[in-house]
Design a protein that fits this description.
Elements: H1 15-35, H2 38-45, H3 49-56, H4 59-71, H5 76-84, H6 89-106, H7 108-118, H8 130-148, H9 156-172, H10 184-197
Helix pairs in contact: 1-2, 1-4, 1-7, 2-3, 3-4, 5-6, 6-9, 6-10, 8-9, 9-10
């Protein structure tokens, strides 16, 4: 069974609805949207289909609700405030990079399936990208601050895209690494150094 802190019990939370969402995530990650049936979701959640439909109406609404729930809300404003407390630009960027890795690793299953399904249903699962888009907007604002302060140069939006893409590639392509895979901390250190300094010797 999928373990995630998103499913931790909270006072007042409808546990039946939450069990259905967890079951939908597990099956979606295993089979994609076409292979996920409401009957299987209901069985895995320990409810009947009538209960599932009472909560979510249709399969499409169920999957949209699941993606919305597990995509979460962007913690970027708080994260950027934490980052600004570090004394150097490099340490600030490492902090942001490590947080990006952790966030993506928690949702790696959803990201992979959503990317695959975009080819056949580009309109269907836009909610899965809301948190990453919010993160990019937040990092772009941070880059803009650093450009204004004379610590970075370039276009803030482009810098944000490039910076976050480094960590996205690290998470999504980990199987391409050798047995001596970079740890998240080492990856953040290496990628921030490349981002700030480039790889060419002047």
């Amino acid at each position: 069974m999928l373990k995630t802190d998103d499913t931790s019990a909270k006072p007042g939370v409808d546990q039946t609805r939450l069990r259905i969402l967890v079951a939908a995530r597990e099956l979606y990650a295993e089979k994609g949207s076409r292979g996920t049936t409401t009957r299987e979701v209901a069985e895995r959640a320990g409810v009947n289909e009538a209960t599932l439909f009472r909560h979510f109406g249709t399969k499409g609404q169920l999957l949209a609700a699941m993606l919305e729930h597990f995509s979460g809300t962007s913690l970027m404003p708080a994260l950027l405030e934490e980052a600004r407390a570090f004394p150097t630009l490099e340490l600030q960027l490492r902090h942001i990079g490590l947080a990006a890795i952790e966030s993506m690793r928690q949702r790696e299953d959803l990201i992979k399936v959503t990317m695959a399904e975009e080819l056949t249903n580009p309109e269907g699962f836009t909610c899965a990208w809301r948190t990453p888009l919010a993160a990019r907007v937040g990092v772009s604002g941070y880059m803009r601050e650093k450009i204004a302060a004379g610590e970075l140069r370039g276009d803030a939006d482009t810098l944000a895209r490039m910076f976050l893409s480094l960590f996205f590639a690290y998470v999504m392509a980990r199987k391409l690494w050798t047995d001596a895979e970079l740890s998240p901390a080492r990856a953040a250190e290496t990628m921030v150094a490349l981002f700030l300094n480039g790889a060419r010797i002047e």
